[in-house]
Amino acid sequence: MKKAVRRTLSATVAAAMAIGLMTGCSSGKEGQKPAGEASGTEAQAAGSGQQAGTGGEQTTIKFWDGNWQEAVWPEVEAIWNKEHPDIKVEAEFQADLANDKYMLALTNGTAPDVMACALDWVTTFGSANLLEPLDEYVARDSFDVDQFVQGANDASTVGGKLYGLPFRSETYVMYYNKDILSAAGYDAPPATWEEVKEVAAACTNGDVYGYGLCGTNYSNFSFQYITMLRSSGSDILNADNTASELGNSVAVETAQLYKDLAAYAPASLLENDNIANRTLFASGKIAMYLSGIYDLEEIVKTNPDLNFACAMVPTAGGAERNTILGGWSVAVAGCSKEKEAAWEFVKFLTRPDIAAIYTNTFTGTAEVAARYADYPEDIIKPNADALQYASALPAVKNIVGIRQAIMDNLQLMLSEDMSAEEACSLLDQAVNGLLE
C-alpha cells in the first residue's frame, strides 16, 4: 500500500527553529520597548520619514532578495541613497533564495534586517514569531496599508498581526501561441478546461506540444494545481482552514485533468519547472501554459517575433473565477538591531513609484511595472484583470509543507500507475497530518 508523502522541515531546520525561538530572531521579547513607544527625536524622525541614524552617523542595514531583482537594484539604490544618506543598505541577491535558507538565518540570528519574502513564507515565519510585527509602526506613522491589494495584506497577517508589506503582486494567466492555435483551427483561446484539453490535443503535432505542465519545483507545481482547483470551484482547505479538501470529487477531477493534460506535454514533463516551460513556449514548442506576468520579458527577449497573447485562466463546471494571489512582501527580522532603519526601507520599497521600478510584475498596489508600458493590451490587460479574482493561500503554519505535499503525491500519479483517486487520497491524508 502506498503511503502519503508528507515532508516537514528538515531535521536541521527543525532543530534550528526550536533553538531559534529561544535565541534567534524571535520578536516581542519580554521587556523590549515596543516600536510604538519610540521617544523624542527618534519618534519624530520616524514619523516624518527622516533617517533613523542619529548624530549624523550612518546606519547600515542588510537586505536579502532573489537574484532576479539584482539588475534593477542600482536604480532603486540611487534613489534611496539620495533620500536617506544616513542609512546604508547592503543588498545581497541570492541565487538560491529558499524558505529553508531564510528559516535557518532567522532561527540562528544571522538574518538580514529586511527580507523579501514570498507571501506564504511570511505566514510560516510569522507563525514562528520570527518576524517583527509592523502594526505599531503602521499606527505610529499613520501609514496607509489599505493602499495594498487586500489579499496580500491578508497573506502577511498572522494571528491578527501584520508581518510584511507587499511590493509585488501577481497571479496566473494562460499564455497561448496565436499561430499554433490558428493552425489547429482555433481563433480564440479556450475558456474552459474541457476546451483546453480539446485544443491541446489538436495542437500536439510532432515536436510541438499542446500544453506545458510543471512536473517538478514544488512552488510551480502546486501553483498550477491549486489554480486549476480553484477555477473548478474548490480549494485545498475547508473554510476555517482546519481540514483538507484535497480528497473531494473536484480535487480528484482536477488531478485527473492534470494527468490528462500530461498526454499533450513534452516527455520531459517530470523534469520541467516553470522556467523550462517558458523556454519551450518562447521557442514555439508548446501552445499553452499557465504562468504570471514575470515571464513576459524573458519570452520577448528570447523570441521577439513570437505571436502570443494572454488570457484569463479557464474555468470548469460553471465555477466563478478564482485564482491564487502570488507575490512578495518585505519583512523585518525579529532579531534586527536596526528596526527603525529597517522600517524606513520597508516603507520605501513598497512605495508605488519605487515598486514600479523594482518589480517585474505588479506592485503591491496593483499598478503595472513601469517596464511594461509599451506591451500590447492583449498581453497586459488579462494579467491586470486577473488580479481582481485572486486571493491568498490559506494562512496556516505549514502552508509550504502543504504545497510540497501536493507535488510529492501528485507526482506519483504522473510517474507511476496510480489513479487520480488514489493520489488524492494519499494527498488528503498528508495534508490533514500537516494540519495537526
From TrEMBL:
Extent of the signal sequence: 1-18
Domain of life of the source: Bacteria
Gene Ontology CC: one annotated term: ATP-binding cassette (ABC) transporter complex, substrate-binding subunit-containing
Keyword Signal part of the UniProt annotation: yes
Low complexity composition bias: residue spans: 35-49
GO BP of this protein: maltodextrin transmembrane transport; maltose transport
InterPro entries: SBP (IPR006059)
A GO molecular-function descriptor: maltose binding
Annotated spans, Disordered: 27-58
Keywords, sorted A to Z: Signal, Transport
Keyword Transport: yes
UniProt record similarity statement: Belongs to the bacterial solute-binding protein 1 family.
Name of this chain's protein: Sugar ABC transporter substrate-binding protein
Species of origin: Enterocloster aldenensis
Lineage: Bacteria, Bacillati, Bacillota, Clostridia, Lachnospirales
